[in-house]
Structure formats: C-alpha cells, structure tokens
Amino acid sequence: MAGTGITTDLVGRSLIGENDVVGTGGSAFRAVDPMSGEAIGPDYDECGPDDVVRATTLAATAFAAYRRTTPDERAAFLETIADEIEARGDAIAARVMAETGLPAPRVAAETARTTGQLRMFAATLREGSWLQARIDRGDAGRTPLPKPDVRQRSVPLGPVAVFGASNFPLAFSVAGGDAASALAAGAPVVVKAHPSHPGTSELVGRAIRAAVQKQGLPEGTFSVLQGAGHELGAALVTDPRIKAVGFTGSRRGGLALVVSAQQRAVPIPVYAEMSSVNPVFVLPGALAERGSELGAAFVASVTGSAGQLCTKPGLVFLMDGPGADDFVAAAGRALGAVSAAAMLSPGIAEAFGTATRATASSDGVRRVAEGVPVEAIACSGVPVLFETDGAAFLARPGLQGEMFGPASLVVRVGDDDELARIIDVLEGQLTATVHGSPRDRELAADLVERLELLAGRVLYGGWPTGVEVGHAMVHGGPFPATSAPATTSVGMRAIERFLRPVAYQDVPEELLPAELRDDNPRHVFRRVDGLPEI
Amino acid sequence: MAGTGITTDLVGRSLIGENDVVGTGGSAFRAVDPMSGEAIGPDYDECGPDDVVRATTLAATAFAAYRRTTPDERAAFLETIADEIEARGDAIAARVMAETGLPAPRVAAETARTTGQLRMFAATLREGSWLQARIDRGDAGRTPLPKPDVRQRSVPLGPVAVFGASNFPLAFSVAGGDAASALAAGAPVVVKAHPSHPGTSELVGRAIRAAVQKQGLPEGTFSVLQGAGHELGAALVTDPRIKAVGFTGSRRGGLALVVSAQQRAVPIPVYAEMSSVNPVFVLPGALAERGSELGAAFVASVTGSAGQLCTKPGLVFLMDGPGADDFVAAAGRALGAVSAAAMLSPGIAEAFGTATRATASSDGVRRVAEGVPVEAIACSGVPVLFETDGAAFLARPGLQGEMFGPASLVVRVGDDDELARIIDVLEGQLTATVHGSPRDRELAADLVERLELLAGRVLYGGWPTGVEVGHAMVHGGPFPATSAPATTSVGMRAIERFLRPVAYQDVPEELLPAELRDDNPRHVFRRVDGLPEI
C-alpha cells in the first residue's frame, strides 16, 4: 500500500510477539476459497508445543507490565488497533472474501463492528465503572471491634487464550470481542487463529502488532498462532501460564476445551459460546394479523450470511390457527427464491448437508421448500425449510439440534399446553423471540417470563440475527448455548470475564491502586458504603 | 419458651417444606459434644435420594412464585428470618455450644453476624443496584440499520443447594451467607446440614420455616436435609432441579462436588470455598520496630476459635534480621501459654493431629512451642508453632498444606529474591497480609502488587481472621482457595453468584420487568447508555 508504509503481503507465518515464526508442529495447511473450492496460498506451518510455550511465556512476562498500564493507555491502544485495521481495510476485506466467501457488504459491516467495539471498549475503560471500585469506610471507634477500611477493585486474571471463530473472521476472531475485552481488562492475548482464514488472521494480527509497537507495549501483549489440528488448542488451554479462555464455535469443540481446562492442576474458566437454535414463537394474533409478512421476514433472517450465525432462528413455533398456513406458504415462497450462497468452508458445507438430511429423514417432518442451487459455487449451502408438529417435535429430541447454515424448522403447536411442554424440553439458548399482537397480551407476558429463564436475550418482534454491541447486550445464555451462563461475549460487560475482584483492607493511601485513593485521581465511578459516591 | 409460642424442642427431623420428615436413607446419627466426646440426642435419620427429590421438587415449584416476589417482599422475608433467629437465640446458642464447643462470646458474635448480614442483604435488595439494570436506548432512524432498544437486568438461576460448614454453625450454615444471598437473589434453597451440628441446623431451619409461613411464601422456598454420608451431597448436586451450589469446607469435599456438578447433563456452578493458609509477610522495618508485639498478636489470630477459621494465618514469613528472633520468641511465649480448646468434632481433632505431626516430622522444621493440654476436653487441639527457613520451605511443597486448627508455621526468609521465589510457588489464597513500617515502603508496594494476584483480600497491618460483612469485602480468591475466583462468599456481592443477566430487546413497556420500565417505579440504580441514570 503505497505511501502508508504498511505491508499487506502475506508471508504465511505465526506472529509471536515481535517475531514472524514458522510453526514447528510439523505440518502445513492452506486456506480454501469456498467459491472455487481451491486452496489459496501462502502455506501456514502448524504451530507445535514449543511455539505455544514461546507465546505464553512472552505473554506471562508482558502481563507484569501490561496490567500496570493505565486504563487511558489501554484505551489508546485499542483505538490504535482500530486505526491499524482501517489502514489495512482493503487488503483485509479482499482476503476475508477470498477465505470465507462472505459478500462485500457483510465484510464491511463486520469490519465496522470490529473497529466500533474496540473504540467502545476504549470509552468504557476511560469511564471506569468496569473496575467495580467500592469503598467501605472504616470506623476505629466501633465496638466491640473496630471496623476496618475495606476497598475493592477488579484485577485482570492473566494471559488469555482466544480461539478465532469460523463464522466471524473479524468480529469474533483475532481482534474480535474476546480479544478486545481481554486486552481492555489488562490481559495479554494469545490467539489461536481459525484455520479457515489464516491470511485474514495474519493481516489483523499485524495490525495489532503495529499498535503494540506504536504504543510501546511489551511484545508479548499479543501473539497469533496458526494451526489446523486440535492439539494446538489443547496445548494452549492446558498451558499453566494461560488463565482464561474465550471461544466461539461448535458444541463439541467448546466442551473439549472445557474438559481440558477443568483437568488442569489449576482449573481456569472457559467462556465458550457454542450452540443455539434461537426459537421464535409466533402467537395467534400476530399470525392472523401478518402471517405472510412474518413468514417472509423470517426467511431473510434464516438465510442471511448463509445462515451461518449463532443467532440464526433454527426453530419457529406457530400457534396453529388463522395465519399459520399463510406464514408457512410465504416462508416457502421466499425461501424457494433464495439462491445457495457460499458456505465458510468445505467442512461446514458438509456438516450442513449431514444435518439437513437427518432432519429431512425424520418421521413427521415435511420439506416445505428448498432454495436455488448454484453450481458455480464449490462449497455452497442450498437453503431449506422444514415443517413438523408439536407432537412430533416432542417425540424427537434430535429435532432441536443445530443445523448450522440456511435451514430452519417450523413447528405447528396445537395449544398453550403443548407450547408449555415444548418450552420445558428446550435446551438453553442465546436468544428467544416472541411475535405478538395486542390480543396476544396475556400469552406474550407469560412467554417473556418463561423465556428469560431459557435464553440470554429475549426479543419482542424483530429477529435475533444482528447483535447490537452496547452496554445492555447479553450474548450468552444457559448451557449449552454457553459454558458460562452468567457472562456475555458481546457488549461492554464482556470485560468482566477476564477480571477478578480484590479487597484491600486498611492499606495506606500511598500503597493503594490509584482508583481507590481518597481523592479518586482517575475520576472513576465508585460506591461508598454501598451507594454511588457523590 | 413461655409466651412466645415458639417451640425449641428438637424432634430430630429434616425439614422439607412444611413437613418434618424422617429421612429415608436407612441410617441415623447423633451430634457429638466435643467437650465430653459423648453423643447427644436426638437421633437424626439420614436423608436418602427420595428425600432429595421431594425437597428439590418443592423448590422447583416454589421457584416459579418466589422469583416473582418483589425485592421489598424478599427483604421483609430476610428480616423476618433474622427476627425468628433472635426469638430462638438462647436455645440456638445453647445448642451451638453443645454441638461445637465454641465459647459463648464467639457464639454471640456469630449470631449477630448472621442476623446482621440477613438485614444487610435486605437493605441491598431495596437499593436495587444488584439487579444490574441497564438501558441502551434505541434509535429507529439510525442507518444502515435501526438501533434496537436493549435493556438488561439479572434473574435468579433457580433452586440452590447450600452445604452447611462445620466451623461456622450459624454464619456459613443454614441461614448463613450462602443461604441469605441465594434467598435474596430469588432462589429457593435446599440446605444439606453439616452432620456435626444437626440440632443447630434444625433450630435455625425452623426459624426460616416460620419466616416462610409468616411471609406467605411457597413452602418449597426452603428445606433442610440431615445426613452424615457423602451420598446425600452428591445426590443433591446432581439433581437436575438444582441450578447452583454453595459450599464452605475442605478441599477434598469441595473438589468432589465440583466434579459431580461438571458431569451433569447440564453442568452448574459450584461456589466452593475450600483451602487457604493466608500467608503473612512481616517486613524488616516492622520486625525491627515491633517484632515482639507482632509475634504475640499473631498468636492471638492463630489460636482464636481454636484456629478453625478459613482465614487463620497458617504461614508467616519473616524477613530475617533484627526483630525476627523477637517475633519468634514472643510468639512462642504467647502460644505456650494458650490452653487447648475444644475442636469442632472428633474428625477435625484427628485431622489436626495428623497434619501437625506431618509438619513436625518434616526435615528442616523445628517446633517452637506448644500450648497447654487440657485433659478434661475430649476433642481438643493443643496449639503448636513451627519454624523453618526459606530454603526448606521451597524444597517441601507439602509445607504449604493447611493445618486446620491452632497451628502455624514461621518461615525465615533470607532475602528479597528468596521471598520472590516463595511467592511464585504459593497457591491461591483467601487472604495475604503485609506488616511494614515507613522504611519498608518500597518492598511493601511491590508486595501488595504481587499479592493482589495471589489472594482475594490483601491486608496491610492487622490479621486476616475476622471477615467484615460489607459492600467491598471479598472472601474468595484464586484456586484452590475457591473454585470460582471471580466471586465472593461474604459481603453483598455474594448475591451475584446466583444471578444471570438477561437482555430484553424491543420488549414493550407493559411486558418489561418493573425495574426496566421507563418510569423506574422501583427506583433502582440503572445505567442508561452506559452512564448512571440522572
């Protein structure tokens, strides 16, 4: 890129601190362009155990200095990362498209989301309430025992391992929400890049490395390891220098990491966002009022990004009655007109085929419609919509399994009792959505109350795809949606996953962290004796 | 108790909802008076699997209604529990002393702490910031996509299992911090009483049942199961209706529950507070200035409550030099004058003997002093103080094992480098304490920074025993001090363990929980677009 001094040529290396490293794992792999099905260069050498130790040792060394940076310094660092990503924007976008088949508008939106959330974490760092600063004033005269002065703030856990996600090569990968929130917390990050987009990971990794250098931070603050095998991830999670793990991916992959982390001499938390079918409930009034309209809108949510979103609605429950046929007919028409799109990788395309064939062959399931095949795309997913009824759904627990891709299952529900029985058997979810009308008021109120126990986010109207990055967002939910239901991986509270509270008892002013000193030099939000400080 | 209408006769039953139940586990046990070593009645029949199902089924049923109570209603319930405990105060105190051998002043203090924290949780419930209410305002005009209205609050996880602790028959048992914080969160509680104080558990359980009835709450809001075997605890933790676990006790017991909980079809969090030796660091200036005084004060902290506190200082590191001999001599003199006290149970007395004999027989360890045996007490622990040096400590990892009881180990540290190496090998702790003087400033600053990564609470001066219940307290810490280092089991943030955030997207005003409605009818603290609401 002439004039910017930025090189965006890929060299096919892992980035360990300041060094470009040829992985020592003994094998190599390439990305695959899902449009053509062809491998694209350069080669990436798989990292081995020695590379893991090198990166985590650098991270542990960096932690001592990095955690002492001020929130302002870390905010500037995050903003510089965003700038460096934008400076490489064209090269990153081109490589994302080549490696994932995602279309340009989606890549642009995901880039904006990635840089936007880095900058939002910067603002949050400066505001300071994430520190959870609290002061309980002492009372030397209390009887029978003096009351100590106790102050609390949060400290980072230590180096964090982040696993890049296949379906968000930017927003949930090298500089995605897990990395941004860990870096914000004061934790160095070692990323295991997702093997389906190594080039994107290298480019974004270089952007972060440039920011590390510009801000004068220790080199071990950030590393990216390339690899396609499971051994690398297991070695990273079981490395004693790693203190927490962020993961977005499959249920099998997430649970394997959880088990590895629990078997360590010192277990660590794994924040795995895994599996969700995001049920949608369309109530009688809404169906009667706008069944067709909802059916068409539903299909747009199912097929966007080729259905490869954690929040894709994979189950829709229609209360049988007026408008239900209209919903199904409109959904079928809409889906029948959607062309197959590239899927992220050959493996995902194959798994999608397996999952949809299993649903298609289930007793009591009917195929409503199928989209338009596109021969020119090597790894494509043809959209498909299935239908069944409540009794069949209740009889076949397998029908609530995730079909990752542009597919969904409509379930016609006979009555409120059957609906209640269905909700009782649903697994934990990232989202649950209700469509109602004023005449559904009573049932809607009941549903919202039930669904808040099932999901991390409850929507009324609209569709669950599209997760707004903010202060109130929860992208999480009960198992198996996540392995840590009390947390969120999107939004500002994601930082809490990498922090731990510490109390300081009777520690003199000059030995206290700045944000706990009487005069509050960093002007952070604090609670004094339980109430907001005036 | 004439005139109060309160019966404090023990009937030897488990309390399952409204019913006094004879456990169906097939065996029976009695408490033991540690002063006499004699069993004291009545018999308690061990609960079996059927009793667990009965209690958890009632709890699950109660949850639907109990979680809908307002924070004000739950606050009144907690206050009523405190009142009911006080109304039975004399009977409870007498039984605690008989079952545990704890002296009257300690029992009075623990009773006050138990009722005090119930009332503090009530005040916290009314203030409302525990709900973590947040509103991100929507913007229908945003491009390219409208911004949704997203609101967040916390909901309870569901029924909680609480394990009574041997060493705090009141403050960490049936109505202790785990139960109080779970009930505050809106979670029904099933307590497994500790088998060393079944009568105390029955009396306190009756106090809570009376409060349930007075407040018109569902009977399944609270149950107490009696039992002495491990099967009962395992059955409770693996019951699918239980959604979280609070435990205070041994490392072995805590880890067993963690494993059981992780192997469930739907894993649940176990908040286990397990094992800590609470290192104390006495710096050169402090030793030179007041070595003798510190040595004597240290012994008071080691031997109070017969050393049976999670925060007892089990290791004290003296920087060798002027005053170190004075510290050891004064500590030896003080400890040599302390009489053996009753230990909580025959099992604990036996384990204490085993642990101290292991330390005594370690190479490089010298016994500094021993307290005064008291033949009249059947289960007693004779205080004992050991001494070693840094090199021996580093060579023998077993020396940082917990000796639960009135014993501690003094370690003479050669220099700052040796101190740094020692800190590197210390396990996670509930507390770490520094004693310094103005001339220790540099070393103290460095230590406080290191220790905040090792412990949940860092003290400067004073002693770690005595945990102030407040808003800023952290009674937690890295593994193996706890199984959940980001949480506290004492203080108001303990409630967070039993909550989970939920986001509500575009949910209309009339379907929102009250605390998220625009007009904030409950006047709870909220953040709007990330900042405190004006």
TrEMBL record, chains A, B:
InterPro entries: Ald_DH/histidinol_DH, Ald_DH_C, Ald_DH_N, Aldehyde_DH_dom, Aldehyde_DH_Superfamily, ALDH_KGSADH. CDD domains: ALDH_KGSADH. GO terms for molecular function: oxidoreductase activity, acting on the aldehyde or oxo group of donors, NAD or NADP as acceptor. Gene3D superfamilies: Aldehyde Dehydrogenase, Chain A, domain 1, Aldehyde Dehydrogenase, Chain A, domain 2. SUPFAM superfamilies: ALDH-like (SSF53720). It holds the Pfam family Aldedh. It comes from the Bacteria. The keyword Oxidoreductase applies. Residues 27-452 form the Aldehyde dehydrogenase domain. Keywords: Oxidoreductase. The keyword 4Fe-4S does not apply. PANTHER family: ALDEHYDE DEHYDROGENASE-RELATED, SUCCINATE-SEMIALDEHYDE DEHYDROGENASE, MITOCHONDRIAL. This is Aldehyde dehydrogenase (NADP(+)). It comes from Antribacter soli.
